[in-house]
Amino acid sequence: MRVEKDFIGEVKLPDDVYYGIHTYRALKNFPKTGEIINESFIWAMFMIKKSAALLNYELGYIDKKICDAIVNACDEWEILKKEIVVDPLSGGAGTSINMNVNEVVANKATEFLEGKKSEYIVKPLEHVNLHQSTNDVFPTAGKIAIIKELRELIENIIKLQDEIQKKEKEFIGIKKIGRTQLMNAVPILLGQEFGAWADALSRDRWRLYKVEERIRSVNIGGTAIGTGIAAPKQYILKIASKVREITRIGIAKAENLIDNTQNLDVFSEVSGLLKSLAVNLIKISNDIRLLVLMQFMK
Question: Which residues of 263-291 are buried (b: 16+ CB within 10 A; e: fewer)?
């Protein structure tokens, strides 16, 4: 066991864990909901810490030894992701999750410098979280994760749309009865039905593609409330570009960092678009289920 201290007192932590006392306090303060933090989000958090370290070194705020140690720690995010143990629904706008990441990176970076966990040669706040706030790191990581996940989703929609369009061509010569309220109505081609499903998926695909334009605008560099307080001007101006370089996700610094910090309506927009996709997928599935059922009922 090892000991860490804060203003409340001291706690004993297992030698094998990389998180620190703030994470320990969060585990005690917030109940476990059973929810799991999205892996893309964890990756984005580590990449933001890596980006900040590189930029802070370039601007002269940390030395190369500290920078390299942080970068090396962040590059091991797949090994360290199991150490991000704070519940995703913990209070405080993500503060404890941000600190969980800071402590894990700091302890791993300290080991790279031949120190021991909790020795904090690399400090969670003064080094790993330098010129950052939960309020700009957390939503920026969320947007990066959404873009990454949406791109994967769109690729799968494209594949599904392509398969349905193949069936549209294959079935274009098959005549059947169209139904309203499950009652026989008027003739339709089976290929036409498949074509309608393909068009519905095309709309979903386009809506999700276009929303990325608004997700790309991030508030990293705005620190606590979007004013960039406690961060130097050059850091504020360059950090979004550095994160874009490291993640290879095309984010950009928001024109109004205050607005982008306090207003996160784009998350609601994405949620609404995913609901629209879900409605179409359920509808298509039910249509196919009914087609099969009607065949068996003949």
Answer: eeebeeebeebbeebeebbeebeeeeeee
Distance CA 155, CA 190 (A): 26
The string of pLDDT tens digits covering residues 81-123 is 999 999 999 877 899 999 999 999 999 999 999 999 999 999 9
Contact 171, 189 (CB under 8 A): yes
Q: Is 235 exposed, middle or buried (0-12, 13-18, 19+ CB in 10 A)?
A: buried
Average of per-residue pLDDT across 131-157: 97
**Residue 90, domain extent:** 2-130
CB contact burial 202-231 (16+ within 10 A = b; e otherwise):
eebbebbeebbeebbbbbbbbbeebebeeb
What's the pTM value of the predicted model, to 2 decimals? 0.93
Distance CA 114, CA 13 (A): 20
State how far the Cα of 34 lies from the Cα of 167, in Å rounded to an integer.
Answer: 41
- Count structural domains, the chain: 2
Measure Cα distances from 31 to 25, 88, 94 in Å.
Answer: 11, 10, 15
If asked whether residues 58 and 84 sit together in one domain, one would say yes
Average pLDDT of span 54-62: 98
